Structures
1.
Amino acid sequence: MEIDKNKIQSLLPHREPMLLIDKLTNIVHLKSATAIMYVKKNGFYVQGHFPGQPVMPGVLIVEAFGQAAAALTAYGIDPEEYKNKLVYLMSVDKARFRNPVIPDCELHLDIEAIRSHGRVWKYKGIAKVDGKRMADAEWSATIVERKNDS
């Protein structure tokens, strides 16, 4: 199973340039998935990080993990239950940045939901480029009510 960027936009509030993931593949209902992010050399996140030797910031790898997990969860739960909800990152643990992510690559984010308790979910993930581990982390998120814009 695979969902594209248009479907991801229907699940997440993020928009360009902050919508980082391009598709979600290998989806196992509320359990795991692989998110694909096309890391581009003209991406906003590498323009000044670092001139002449661009590297994707580690904090944005963590953000991409969070977006992938939010999309997996939003896609898996009942649409009526998720209506008017957002997924907020609560904590990040055990983040390790093992190799720099250099633009013009496909970053694969293998994520897994390791437990849920009510509206709080815990996940773990591994980021890879061409099968090589670039980063890994564990994080928690919560599902909250979306505030109405007035």
2.
Amino acid sequence: MKYKVLTIVLTAVFAVPSFLFAQKKNVEEPSLLRQTPFAVKTNILYDEASFVNFSVEAGLGSNWGVQFDAICPWWKDDDNLRVTQMINLGLEGRYYWRGWTDNSRAISGPYVGAMVSGGIYDLCRRSSSKNKYRGFQGDYFFMGGITCGYVWAPSPWWRLEASAGLGAMQTAYTHYDMVENGQYLMLHNEGTYTYFGPTKINFSIAWLFSQCWQQKKKGVWR
């Protein structure tokens, strides 16, 4: 009998505070913390340079975010002289200084972060000589550094972001000239290059498709 009484008492001791904490959490915790906001982005500056790109960011809790970046232009002109080919994949973790108090403000405000990325490239443009095109082909490149920026929320669905990054890059490259309508490649040199300085500049427009889905599902913003 005494063991049954002890069991009841211990259950009450642990269950009651847990129940009160859960009730408090349900009342005070914003609904956002039980949902994961997702944003799809494109860097307008890269778009203007014909660098196809997109990013996907997921909000974690009310202050953290993780973003996947892809830059993947793959263009050649008709004579195979002007080349813009790149595959750059990256991952960035972010901490937003002010917590998001409701769904309409998710993924917004000032932030700091850290990023890593890497990939391959082949870039060729006309040189000072009219008959030559000079190019650099990267066997690989890696970048890493810190980022900071600000995300504006002009509406519950849309975001505008300005950010920059500072860090280091290393690449193994081949320097070449292309002549005779792209039919002849002249190798100059190969090497490895390491760079320290600005690594990212970004002005993006983002659409929170998770917010759109939630509004359609519930009919109202919360």
3.
Amino acid sequence: MIAQTIQLALAPVFVLVAIGNIMNLLSTRLGRVVDRSRHLQGLHMATEGPEHDMVVAEIRLLDRRIRLITRAIGLLVSSGLAIGTTVAVLFLQELAGLELQRLAAGTFMVAVALMMWALLLFLSETRIAAQQLKIPRDYLELERDL
């Protein structure tokens, strides 16, 4: 019976591995965003006019990205804790002879829901990042023929 419980626990553990990989990705993105924001904060006082406005606009977007990534990481940590709870409930059910299948299913569903929420925040963050990558029209100088 313990072997069967270990087999049942493998699916949640694979989800836990996926959560860890996503958290690693988000942590890397967060580091890059923070580095960029620190650079721009250094330029904040050194710029004026339209250049200053561009710096401020980018800082605002970076601030939003930082908040989204941080929230996504928090949700993934909560999801990981729910996965750990699911595995613990599966073993508790086996070892104590309790009927905890609904509780295990519930904790797993909570974990998946939290992970999906985090992925939606990640999608929002990547959209903002893509928006930031757009070249400002001023740099394109579309009114000039080349």
4.
Amino acid sequence: MAKNYLTKERYEELKKELDELRLGGRQSVGERLRHAKELGDLSENAEYQAVREEQGLLEKRIADLEDLLENSSLIDKAGGGETVKVGSNVDLKKNGTETVSYTLVGSNEADPTKGLISNASPLGKALLGKRVGDLVAISAPKGEMKYTILKIK
């Protein structure tokens, strides 16, 4: 199983969501289940069936969040360093012309439009462990892409 990486901020967001689901979400579904049971025959009670399905989805989300939080490592944003690691911000020269900047994060936080790339993405994997001046080449749908590492922050 791949290791999950989370920033402290994302970890706190997910923990808050989990707490809200455990308390408010379960309470709300419980109240709706009690109300639906009062309506009579459960085998033909569409409202009861819908709430039971919602309860299943709620419990799955809770279990997924618990697993994610339990099996995650927090990203150290100490910055710098000689090699690229999860949490590094990297300035790159793309195909010898354009300069781009990316931060390596876990797959749960990746958002390339914001400059956040997953450590599990092709570029993220290729950058890990590299140093300033190293050339990284990856295969992309548009052809081979070459990146030169300019700076590790």
